[in-house]
């Protein structure tokens, strides 16, 4: 793997870096410190800018109208896009668009017409419904939502928990058990319209994130036509698993971006802040925190870029993606924690972004598969058949 | 946590006695205990709930009562209260401008 950025990568990364500093940061100064949305007029204006930059719809394959940007470059951009207060969960407030639910690229043409294309045009929103009250880390066994065939339809009953965006969505991917005896080979993915009778958003789940919330869903005799099965009956787990693996790379990259910004702020601050007649930067305790931050950032960045490179080359990357998620979420948590410490009281005030990053970074060790599961994935890849 | 904010109403004359600088959410009601406005005190609120409720009462002179909930999850709780109100009444409180909200059907 070449560790040097190409000329094109340097240019695109620089463009996005300027966008964050010149467009996002000034707007953020006037927003609520926990905001995760821009005013509609600001959002529209910035979307127009990202379109002019040729970078709107990052993650959408070029054949569907997305920019032709490889995964390594997209990872570098994800690092840049998260370098602001809301950047961890709302990088650039969504002004670069998104791929929506990438699983729909594998849908039938009719399903694409109804769900994928309207989503790419910004006309529809979807949600990903996998986790349940019975657990999310082991979906193959934890899924208790049942789908039973009834003529040309399927009747779904059950519940989902920790689902983002379901209250505002037009449709969602709902994973349900269709064969009780087949474990991971008994799960099917259904595309469900949220106006289907029997679909309920029962509860909002408040978390450490103030602006964003999860939802609890309930399905009561929800009738879904067989045309809405994504992929094949009993093959839904592969769809879920592929998504979980791929998502770990940008998830790691977002953490690294926040860590870089926290370190940058600390490096600006400690030479200015005087204690006992000398700048903080002259204290070895502070210097070592900065050094540890730098090592944490570099280690997690290289591991994440290696995972992206393997995925880009079409090589197996499950172990590398798990390592990236594991290392980046833990390293970035330490970096933010040390930066808060260097800023003292200011570090915990809402005047600065550290307290938000601190809260949100804690979630990253649990989201997209807890880090214990990542270690399990890595161990399984290392030990192979001896564990099975 | 209950989805609806159903604490007893407090007369607006008690704002300075009851409220301090916390973050949180609140509702205002008219003389008939009809909710006329919902708001929140966030990280940028200079005087927290006390300041925001005071300002909201000045903006809505028909407000006679308020009730509140202290929470650091003020944004998600505010959206939840608005969605629940929309579910129960089919509209938002008269004093709240239309905002983008999700749909909820609490039990």
CATH architectural name of the largest domain in chain A: Up-down Bundle
The number of strands of chain B is 4
Strand content of chain A: 15-25%
- Got a strand count of chain A? 10
Q: What is the CATH class name of chain B?
A: Alpha Beta
How does the overall form of chain A come out from the CA principal axes? globular
Q: Low-confidence segments of chain B, ≥5 residues, pLDDT <50?
A: none
- Bin the helical content of chain B: 25-40%
The count of domains of chain B is: 1
Name of the top-level CATH class of the largest domain in chain A: Mainly Alpha
C-alpha Rg of chain A (nearest Å): 22 Å
Question: How would you characterize this protein structure?
Answer:
The complex is a heterodimer of chains A (388) and B (107). Chain A is of the alpha+beta class and 388 residues long. Chain A folds into three domains: 7-103, Butyryl-Coa Dehydrogenase, subunit A, domain 1; 126-230, Butyryl-CoA Dehydrogenase, subunit A, domain 2 (Beta Barrel), CATH 2.40.110; 238-387, Butyryl-CoA Dehydrogenase, subunit A, domain 3 (Up-down Bundle), CATH 1.20.140. Chain A has helices at residues 7-28, 40-52, 71-81, 109-120, 139-142, 236-269, 284-313, 318-343, 345-348, 354-364, 371-383; strands at 126-129, 146-150, 153-164, 171-177, 187-193, 199-205, 214-225, 229-230, 274-275, 278-279. Chain A is globular and about 80 Å long. The two termini of chain A are 32 Å apart. The model of chain A has no long low-confidence stretch (mean pLDDT 93). Chain B is of the alpha+beta class. Chain B has one domain (11-89): 3-Layer(aba) Sandwich (GIY-YIG endonuclease), CATH 3.40.1440. Helices cover 30% and strands 20% of the residues of chain B. Chain B has three helices and four strands. In chain B, a hairpin with a 5-residue loop joins β2 and β3. The model of chain B has no long low-confidence stretch (mean pLDDT 94).
């Amino acid at each position: 793997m070449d560790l040097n950025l190409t000329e094109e990568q340097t240019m695109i990364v620089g463009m996005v870096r300027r966008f964050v500093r010149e467009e996002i940061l000034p707007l953020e100064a006037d927003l609520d410190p926990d905001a995760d949305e821009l005013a509609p007029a600001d959002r529209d204006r910035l979307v127009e800018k990202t379109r002019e930059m040729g970078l709107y719809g990052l993650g959408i394959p070029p054949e569907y109208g997305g920019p032709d940007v490889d995964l390594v470059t997209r990872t570098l951009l994800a690092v840049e896009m998260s370098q602001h207060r809301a950047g961890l969960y709302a990088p650039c407030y969504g002004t670069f668009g998104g791929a929506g639910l990438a699983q729909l690229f594998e849908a039938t043409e009719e399903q694409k017409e109804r769900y994928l294309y309207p989503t790419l045009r910004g006309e529809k929103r979807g949600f990903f419904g996998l986790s349940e009250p019975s657990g999310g880390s082991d979906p193959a066994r934890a899924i208790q939502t049942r789908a039973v065939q009834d003529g040309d339809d399927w009747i779904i009953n059950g519940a989902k928990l920790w689902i983002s965006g379901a209250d505002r969505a037009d449709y969602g991917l709902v994973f349900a058990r269709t064969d009780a005896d087949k474990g991971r080979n008994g799960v099917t993915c259904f595309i469900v319209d949220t106006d289907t009778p029997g679909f309920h958003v029962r509860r909002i789940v408040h978390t450490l994130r103030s602006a964003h919330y999860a939802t609890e869903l309930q399905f009561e005799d929800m009738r879904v036509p067989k045309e809405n099965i994504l992929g094949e009956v009993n093959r839904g787990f592969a769809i879920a698993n592929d998504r979980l693996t791929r998502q770990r790379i940008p998830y790691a990259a977002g953490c690294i971006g926040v860590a870089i910004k926290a370190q940058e702020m600390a490096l600006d601050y400690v030479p200015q802040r005087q204690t006992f007649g000398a700048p903080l930067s002259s204290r070895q305790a502070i210097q070592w925190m900065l050094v540890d931050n730098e090592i944490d950032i570099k280690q997690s960045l290289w591991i994440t870029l290696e995972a992206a490179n393997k995925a880009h080359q079409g090589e197996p990357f499950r172990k590398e993606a798990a390592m990236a998620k594991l290392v980046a979420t833990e390293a970035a948590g330490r970096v933010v924690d040390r930066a808060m410490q260097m800023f003292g009281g200011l570090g915990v005030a809402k005047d600065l972004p550290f307290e938000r990053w601190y809260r949100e970074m804690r979630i990253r060790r649990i989201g997209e598969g807890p880090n214990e599961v990542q270690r399990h994935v890595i161990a399984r890849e290392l030990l192979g058949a001896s564990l099975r | 946590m209950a989805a609806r904010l159903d604490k007893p109403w407090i007369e607006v004359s008690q704002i300075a006695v009851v409220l301090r600088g916390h973050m949180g959410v609140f509702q205002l009601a008219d003389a008939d205990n009809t909710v006329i406005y919902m708001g929140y005190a966030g990280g940028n609120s200079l005087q927290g709930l006390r300041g925001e409720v005071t300002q909201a009462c000045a903006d809505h002179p028909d407000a006679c009562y308020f009730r509140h909930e202290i929470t650091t999850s003020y944004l998600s709780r505010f959206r939840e209260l608005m969605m629940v109100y929309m579910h129960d009444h089919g509209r938002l409180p008269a004093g709240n401008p239309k905002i983008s909200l999700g749909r909820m059907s609490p039990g």
